[in-house]
Specification:
2 domains; 6-stranded mixed beta sheet; 3-stranded mixed beta sheet; Immunoglobulin-like; binds copper (II) ion; about 210 residues; alpha+beta
Length: about 210
């Protein structure tokens, strides 16, 4: 018992010394490596920064905004996520809406037409649609709409229903030329409560910039 204890203590001492030695060498090496990495990082960042700058200026990338329409089990309603968002003014903004709601809420023909987007079109992608540009969808296939009728904007984007568990993805591009905060609505008769409750089927789009 006492032999084993003393044996372990001796081994621990040796290990302790080795660890201590390793730590000392390790910290010195770490500092050196740290200085080298930092130097390379500053140098590399400078070089990359110079190389990347002209690309950013010459080919401005359209802004992207991703929205999801889905059932929220906590509220018991279909909602836009997010319902309140911000976009830059005077640049093309591509908004992609991924809709998981497979129920239909048929709309009048006027709300099945695409209005106010670049080219007057949207693309629809699901198991039967290829992502081609369309100017309208079947009113009976609409689940929700993204509709911004708030002066000076007049935008309507019909969102067809998901197919089973496969979402329908709608994308469109718009240029927002007037800064300010505007209220959008879903015009499909989906849910009386959600349609009038901010953060559900209505919300704000804030346009910022010159
Ligand atoms: Cu809706």
């Amino acid at each position: 018992m006492s032999e084993r204890t003393s044996g372990m203590t001796a081994r621990e001492e040796v290990l302790g010394r080795r660890m201590k030695g390793r730590r000392q060498v390790g910290s010195g090496t770490l500092i050196l490596v740290g200085v080298i990495v930092l130097s390379l990082g500053v140098l590399g960042g400078g070089i990359l920064g110079h190389a990347a700058a002209p690309q950013t200026v010459s080919t401005p990338r359209p802004e992207q905004l991703y929205l999801t329409v889905a059932f929220n089990p906590y509220t018991g309603a279909d909602e836009y996520f997010p319902a309140n968002f911000t976009v830059p003014a005077n640049v093309p903004v591509t908004i992609t809406v991924t809709n998981y709601d497979n129920g239909t809420n048929p709309v009048p023909a006027s709300f099945a037409k695409v209005l106010g987007t670049v080219g007057g079109t949207e693309t629809v992608t699901n198991t039967t649609a290829s992502g081609a540009s369309v100017t309208s969808v079947l009113p009976t296939q609409v689940a929700h709409t993204f509709t911004l009728i708030d002066t000076p904007y007049q935008i309507n984007v019909p969102i067809p229903a998901a197919q089973g568990t496969t979402p329908t993805v709608v994308a469109f591009t718009a240029v927002f030329t007037t800064a300010g905060q505007f209220v959008w609505h879903c015009m499909a008769p989906c849910d009386g409560h959600a349609m009038v409750t901010a953060g559900f089927m209505t919300g704000t789009i804030t346009v910022v910039g010159p």
